[in-house]
Amino acid sequence: MQFTINDIIKTAELRTRLLSGSGLERPVRWAHVCELDDPTEWLGEGDLLMTTGLAIPSTPEAQRCYLERLVSAELAGLMIGEHMQAPDNLQALCETADTLNFPILLTHYGVPFAAVTHAIVEANRQQDFERRNLITQIYENARLGLQGLGLSRLISRLEKDTRATLSLLESNSLEPWLPSLKRLEVDQLILLQHKRSKTPRQQWIIQRYRLNESRQLMLMEIPSQRNCLLVANSDGLLDYSLLHHVVAVLGIELERLQVEHERQLRLGSELLDDLLQHRLSPRLLEQRLAQFDITLEQAQLAVTSLANDPDFSDILLRRGIMPLCRVQGEELIFLVEQSQAIELQHQLGGPMGLSNILEHPERATEALREARLAHSCATPEAPFQQYAHSDLTPWQPRNLDEARQVFQQVLGRLAEHDVQQGSQLLMSLRTFLEHNRSWLGAAQQLHIHKQTLVYRIRRIEAITGRSLSNTEDVAILWFALRAGSLASINLNAPRL
């Protein structure tokens, strides 16, 4: 326990009493004699100013200013030697102390100030002994964390060690780092939001804010995690050095969670790839899916764009979501239940398409195409689309068979030409239209000369019987390309 003003008063041999003010529970870190007009140039937070009274002004206004400076510097208190050199009239000093709840002590003439300092030193030695024991306990909790104690239980144990309330937050939103962790109290949240609004780009690193006379908040960043903030709330002064050890332990636990999360994502990605490539027997697939608490009778494939949120792994970790997912090109593919898919779309924010129920492994490839078709129908107003209820526009294929038929009817001959000749006319057509028929832009994308592209476009027009100078033909070719994409036809090397 920290040595306080009240401990000084209760120590009989120091023969000290309270003259005025309050705040007896203020912790005292050090005591020092200073007879300067402005002792705050040398003393600061938690220090006890000891004086014979030589520097205390004699006029009421000067006494008020003198004490206000001590309060502003957050000194622990003022100790005056009795019957020494203090002014006879200390009324203004005492009234200001009562108003500002600042303790003024009077020490017997026969007690040397050195005795007070020795008492504080001895108390600090005991405190250091207790701190070492606490640090040992903190790292014992770190060991338990590595054995799977869990972040919530680890924080609870650290709260007991530090005698403080600990909150782990996302520093931008001030939301709990994980859903299972507790939120800040309303008054604390309002205080931090107000502080952040005044400096939007504030780096928290180490910040301290006073809630009231006895309670304070201390903010420390977790160095191993981006945008992760520890908020400690305690009575009295918080121990900086102890909190640094707490930050280190929490950093270790968060790293462990990150590694475990990435391991689970890797296992899920491998399993999803095995499912899509039909590498597993139904029995083995069922056993591996059971490890993720999902069955084929409930599972659906969901597709969203990776471009919407490249940091999806951090979002999944901090929202406590552990789906089977796989990155494939610019797509994120999930194997989920419908309720989980809705939550995923809400957290990731981008459009998402959901297939029908998988039911059996042989339908995996077809379900992926269904999810892609539903994804193509998503809009900002309706970002979540399910294949069975997709709001298709009139010119879009209504199912995968229809998508294949549209592609075959419009671009089938061109795809056959590419297969037979090993050419890249389909890819050239798609690139040309994606660049809004810009000869230069498309040629640069394809890494060919403009005249080579002109030749290819003429061949495309000849094979398809459609002109890229005609708006109607351009629209038909574009929708056919989109149909091929929905049907998962590789436009770089089509196989019909």
TrEMBL record:
Signal peptide: none
Domain called PucR C-terminal helix-turn-helix: residue spans: 425-483
Matches recorded under Gene3D superfamilies: PucR C-terminal helix-turn-helix domain (1.10.10.2840)
Protein name: PucR family transcriptional regulator
Purine catabolism PurC-like domain: residues covered: 7-122
Species of the source: Oceanimonas baumannii
Alphabetical list of InterPro entries matching this protein: CdaR-like_regulators, PucR_C-HTH_dom, PucR_C-HTH_sf, PucR_dom
One Pfam family matching this protein: HTH_30
